[in-house]
Task: inverse folding
């Protein structure tokens, strides 16, 4: 042995980790594979093919013909990787594949078909047989009906141990202290079945029963021939409470299969279903902090899972195998290879898991969408994971997408984002909002030339609505010394200069003001000097619903008494009057991000025992009083919106149901729309970041309450905007960082979509630049692992 390594992530008090030899990756001559699923078998075949002298052993506790589930779906990308890495396996699979392009969505008796999707599937049993044959031909030792020795024992006897032992991995659980798995159980029950005929498309069908909503996911995996009707996978899924109400909890396997066939008799043409050791399952998402420990590495479902509704389990396992084999070939030793494997695969897996989470949550919340028009419902389902978008769906099936656009109200040639939207008496010419962004660049609360140029540039940039940063209603209500205000006449005059510029130079662009009070998050340094850190000197006293500091280092605020509440309410009213006089088109009340009004709403920051604390109704009392007071002085013809944090991303905080109730309450008091943000309420939050990660909260509020919403949060492309709008998940999209990157983001979005209609207007001075510049050529990436014939 040249030496040993210990794996990062071990905790104090952990048992001593197993030593792993530091040797060239090519010297991984003895390889143990735990688990004979597709990922483990394919890894074994690749590694043996790369070095025929290797000793590769696979342990599988089941018999060769035992398999669970029926069909396996693989993407063209995965198949391309297989083709380049092992043409023999690819050729064998190619002969078995069923290929189809269409997705059928059946809802309330209406079927809509979208084409151009490109699926390939085959029997899981046949896939395993192909891999068994390949492994045997290469000399891999396959040991069926045999429990693998414990991973710790294997690690001392083999150079490399690949744990491909599935979602219930014993290898992972044996060293959970090192791998540190997180297992999340979700809200739906599902059962994996099969039908003895081939669907002619990937089929989603919805059944609205007396017990609740149930859905079918079905796809062919064996083609119909002259001698066989083919075969299809059928998954029936429903929420846990629906499953219980329907009596499936007490039904045996055969009864469940029979009842599912009756529920979806139309989809099945009256044919029966059958199972294969089928039982009702609850999907679990597996995430691991670390994927390797010494010379043991996790692969496939042992390392990660992604919901079946995006067809990713086998795909991810096969791609893991490709990456692991490639890194063992490329890296100088086994530890480096395992680290490189995880570095390469983790971002891909995390992206897939985000898409899978969005998809499974969509199906969990399916009842929200049942009232949508059928074509919009179909588009919403197709784009649920954010992997399929408006733009690529338009390329796949232009006819279907155009019909959805017509239903939405798009004029010919008009992308959804450039359709107008009315908020009260204010008509926005498009659906793009420049989100409020604090600039920390005011002097004594007065916006200066920077604000004129910053907001003026974005007004010229084509957005339908440009929002100011949070404008503070008092000196003590500032976040930092650089925050802008509306508590003096000088500040009001400076804001009027900005508004007048926008109206004169960017006619048709609305400009809105966001009013807020910092609460317990005030008296801090400028963001770039230390975000949320208290000032070194010159601090001012803070006010909040309860005397709770934002961080341990923060100043403790005083709890507002009756007089203090009245004073703050009047500060909002005075600022609103000044905003109206300055000519703002819209006013937004900031009740999010842990600032004063937000702190009243969250149970984590409001511990009051008087009429302003306790129940959600009581916590809403003061924010609603402020809203009513502002609405009384704000011109009736100009809309008001409210920004809320729909979750605190922390245990015990605002729930999704709370957010819906808060939105309903503000709408009942006259809010024209709810601007749905999340978090920043408590310092120890744990957000689930990702593309468009906050939009599901806006989606739920819109579809549960019918209140117009503004979606925010990592919406970065015009394709995202079009997709969210057309799916009915939001009415407007607010973008922040994209407008810092490109002040003319909306104009460029129009140019990139070849749109030149009334939904966006290029300033005369910029019109010569309205054509998209030519770009250079980009080459596609080479295959991950290419071994030739």
Result:
């Amino acid at each position: 042995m040249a030496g040993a390594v210990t794996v990062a992530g071990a905790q104090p008090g952990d048992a001593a980790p197993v030593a792993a030899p530091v040797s060239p990756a090519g010297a991984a001559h003895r390889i143990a594979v735990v688990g004979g699923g597709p990922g483990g078998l394919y890894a074994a075949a690749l590694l043996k093919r790369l070095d025929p002298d290797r000793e590769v052993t696979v342990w599988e506790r089941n018999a060769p013909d035992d398999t669970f589930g029926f069909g396996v779906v693989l993407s063209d990308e995965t198949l391309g990787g297989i083709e380049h890495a092992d043409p023999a396996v690819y050729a064998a699979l190619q002969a078995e594949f069923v290929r189809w392009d269409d997705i059928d969505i059946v809802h309330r008796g209406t079927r809509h078909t979208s084409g151009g999707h490109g699926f390939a599937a085959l029997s899981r049993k046949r896939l395993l047989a192909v891999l068994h044959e390949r492994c045997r031909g290469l000399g891999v030792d396959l040991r069926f009906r045999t429990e693998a020795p414990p991973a710790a024992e294997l690690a001392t006897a083999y150079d490399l141990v690949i744990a491909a032992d599935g979602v219930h991995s014993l290898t992972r659980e044996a060293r959970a202290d090192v791998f540190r798995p997180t297992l999340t159980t979700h809200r739906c029950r599902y059962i994996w079945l099969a039908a003895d005929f081939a669907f002619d498309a990937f089929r989603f069908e919805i059944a609205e029963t007396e017990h609740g909503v149930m859905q079918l996911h079905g796809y062919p995996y064996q083609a119909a021939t002259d001698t066989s009707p083919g075969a299809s996978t059928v998954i029936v899924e429903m929420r846990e409470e629906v499953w219980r109400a329907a009596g499936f909890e007490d039904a045996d396997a055969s009864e469940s299969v029979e009842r599912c066939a009756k529920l979806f008799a139309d989809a099945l043409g009256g044919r029966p279903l059958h199972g294969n050791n089928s039982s009702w399952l609850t999907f679990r998402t597996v995430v691991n902090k670390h994927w390797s420990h010494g010379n043991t590495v996790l692969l496939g479902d042992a390392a990660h899972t992604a919901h079946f509704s995006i067809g990713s389990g086998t795909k991810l396992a096969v791609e893991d195998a490709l990456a692991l084999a490639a890194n063992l070939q490329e890296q100088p030793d086994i530890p480096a290879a395992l680290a490189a494997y995880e570095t390469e695969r983790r971002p891909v897996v995390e992206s897939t898991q985000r898409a899978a989470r969005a998809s499974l949550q969509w199906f969990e919340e399916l009842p929200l969408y049942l009232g949508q028009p059928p074509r919009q419902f179909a588009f919403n389902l197709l784009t649920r994971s954010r992997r399929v978008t408006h733009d690529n769906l338009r390329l796949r099936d232009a006819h279907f997408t155009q019909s959805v656009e017509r239903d939405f109200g798009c004029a010919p040639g008009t992308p959804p984002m450039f359709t107008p939207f009315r908020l009260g008496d204010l008509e926005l010419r498009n659906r793009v909002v420049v989100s409020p962004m604090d600039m920390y660049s005011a002097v004594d609360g007065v916006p200066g030339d920077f604000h004129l140029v910053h907001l003026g540039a974005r007004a010229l940039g084509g957005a339908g609505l440009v929002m100011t940063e949070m404008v503070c209603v008092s000196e003590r209500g500032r976040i930092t010394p650089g925050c802008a205000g509306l508590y003096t006449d000088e500040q009001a005059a400076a804001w009027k200069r900005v508004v007048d510029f926008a109206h004169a130079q960017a006619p048709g662009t609305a400009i809105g003001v966001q009013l807020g009070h910092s609460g317990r998050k005030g008296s801090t340094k400028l963001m770039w000097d230390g975000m949320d850190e208290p000032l070194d000197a010159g601090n001012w006293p803070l006010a909040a619903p309860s005397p709770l500091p934002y961080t341990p280092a923060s100043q403790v605020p005083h709890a507002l008494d009756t007089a203090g509440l009245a004073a703050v309410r009047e500060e909002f009213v005075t600022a609103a009057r000044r905003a109206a006089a300055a000519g703002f088109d819209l006013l937004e009340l900031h009740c999010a991000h842990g600032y004063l009004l937000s702190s009243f709403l969250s149970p984590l920051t409001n511990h009051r025992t008087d009429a302003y604390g306790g129940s959600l109704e009581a916590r809403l009392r003061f924010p609603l009083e402020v809203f009513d007071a502002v609405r009384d002085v704000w011109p009736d013809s100009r809309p008001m919106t409210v920004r809320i944090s729909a979750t605190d991303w922390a245990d015990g905080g605002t729930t999704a149901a709370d957010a819906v109730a808060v939105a309903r309450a503000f709408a009942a008091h006259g809010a024209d729309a709810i601007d749905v943000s999340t978090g920043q309420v408590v310092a120890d939050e744990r957000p689930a970041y990702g593309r468009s990660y906050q939009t599901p909260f806006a989606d739920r509020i819109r579809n549960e309450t019918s209140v117009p919403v503004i979606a925010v949060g990592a919406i970065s492309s015009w394709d995202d905007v079009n997709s969210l709008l057309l799916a009915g998940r939001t009415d407007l999209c607010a973008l922040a960082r994209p407008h810092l990157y490109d002040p003319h983001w909306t104009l460029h979005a129009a140019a990139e979509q070849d749109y030149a209609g009334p939904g966006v207007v290029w300033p005369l001075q910029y019109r010569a630049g309205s054509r998209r510049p030519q770009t250079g050529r980009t080459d596609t990436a080479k295959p991950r692992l290419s071994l030739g014939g």
Summary: Confidence is low (pLDDT under 50) at residues 1-23.
